[in-house]
Structures are given as C-alpha cells and as structure tokens.
Write a structure and sequence with these properties.
GO terms for molecular function: RNA binding. It comes from Anopheles culicifacies. InterPro entries: Nucleotide-bd_a/b_plait_sf, PABP_RRM1, RBD_domain_sf, RRM2_I_PABPs, RRM_dom. Keywords: Repeat, RNA-binding. This is RRM domain-containing protein. The protein is an alpha+beta fold and about 200 residues long. The chain has 2 domains: about 10-85, RRM (RNA recognition motif) domain (Alpha-Beta Plaits, 2-Layer Sandwich); about 95-175, RRM (RNA recognition motif) domain (Alpha-Beta Plaits, 2-Layer Sandwich), CATH 3.30.70.330. Helix content is about 35%, strand content about 30%. The protein contains 6 helices and 12 strands. It has helices at about 25-30, 60-70, 90-95, 110-120, 150-160, 175-195, and strands spanning about 10-15, 35-45, 50-60, 75, 80, 85, 100-105, 125-130, 140-145, 165, 165-170, 170-175. It has a 4-stranded antiparallel β-sheet, covered by helices on one side. Strands 8-9-7-12 form a 4-stranded antiparallel β-sheet, covered by helices on one side. Strands 4-5 form a two-stranded antiparallel sheet. A hairpin with a 6-residue loop joins strand 2 (about 35-45) and strand 3 (about 50-60). It starts with 11 loop residues before the first strand and ends with a helix.
C-alpha cells in the first residue's frame, strides 16, 4: 500500500436504522453538507430490492466523515433517528470481541444517543446500540463496541456501579456465546478430572 494514499477505510461510514423509503439521493443530500461524498450505497435485498435499513457513505476526506459522524449521529430522517458508525471493514476486529462492553439495568429513557454521549468520553466508539422491543421501547440493556480494549476497560472502571438517571448500571465485558461455551467447556473438563481423581 502506498503510504501517501488516503486511508479510504477511515472515510467510510455505516449508516443504520434507516426508514425503508430512504434512497441514495436522500442520503447524498444530507451527507454532502459535511463535505464531498465519493459514493453512497443503500444495502438492499437481492430479490425484492427492498432496503435493508442501512447504507455505506464514503467521503473523500476522513475529516469530513468524522464531522458527519460527530454532527449527524441520531439526526432524524423520515421521523427515524439514524445511527452512524465507522464502517467496520475489518471483520476480525468485530468478531474478536475486543473492546466490546455490555450494559444492563439502563433507565428506559436512555436511548442510543444518550448512551453514545455517555460512553464516547472513554474513546472512539465503533458501534453502540440499546436493545429495543417491537414497539421501539428500550429493554434496559445495550452494547458499546470501542475501538480499543483500553477504552472499554476504562468505561467499565468509570461507569460500572454508577448512577445513570438515578439507576445503578452494570457495565462489564461482553462475552460472546462462543467464549462462554469455551469457558463452560474448560470448567466441565476440570470438574470431570476432579471427579475421577476422587473416585
């Protein structure tokens, strides 16, 4: 890779929670106010061509992408707050679970934006989501994925056990099902070994 070349990954945004009527043109109008846009792709069902509710917006300059993320996250388009994240082209980072934090006992009034605002103090957030039921009401828990393990640990240290909107929240490492099963497997092995020894 040419070191002088711009890092396009850093100028690419994922835009989610989109109303199904939103087209590339609507997004172009919105995002080009932050700076020159290279391309926009609304992801659609291959057969029905219906929008899947998310899109990728590529800017020419990383600084403009950053400006869009900082100023437009959770803006309403067609009555729905859009959710903007850095486009995670590196699936290994997403799957590794590095920097993933789980938050529970959240006040029902805390939405994506409020959670983003609380946790962005600890570092760059790749994604942030409050779990919702079919009616769009908060289920009282959510996830934040930080770019670095350090930011995640920092947020756990500072926010776990603290009051957010008068409710004491729990913040801890998000452990994927695979990891949990692995840990259980290790414990089961330990258990059977012990059992055999004391036979």
């Amino acid at each position: 890779m040419n070191p002088g070349a711009p890092n396009y990954q850093m100028a690419s945004l994922y835009v989610g929670d989109l109303h199904s009527d939103i087209t590339e043109a609507t997004l172009f109008e919105k995002f080009s106010t932050a700076g020159p846009v290279l391309s926009i792709r609304v992801c659609r069902d291959l057969i029905t061509r219906r929008s899947l509710g998310y899109a990728y917006v590529n800017f020419q300059q990383p600084a403009d992408a950053e400006r869009a993320l900082d100023t437009m996250n959770f803006d309403s388009i067609k009555g729905r707050p859009i959710r903007i994240m850095w486009s995670q082209r590196d699936p290994s980072l997403r799957k590794s679970g590095v920097g993933n934090v789980f938050i529970k006992n959240l006040d029902k009034k805390i939405d994506n934006k409020a959670m983003y605002d609380t946790f962005s103090a600890f570092g760059n957030i790749l994604s942030c989501k409050v779990a919702q039921d079919e009616k769009g009401q908060s289920k009282g828990y959510g996830f934040v994925h930080f770019e670095t393990e350090e930011s995640a640990n920092n947020s756990i240290e500072k926010v776990n056990g603290k009051l957010l909107n008068e409710k004491k929240v729990y913040v801890g490492r998000f452990i994927s099902r695979k990891e949990r099963e692995k840990e259980l497997g290790e414990k089961a092995k330990l258990f059977t070994n012990v059992y055999v020894k004391n036979f």
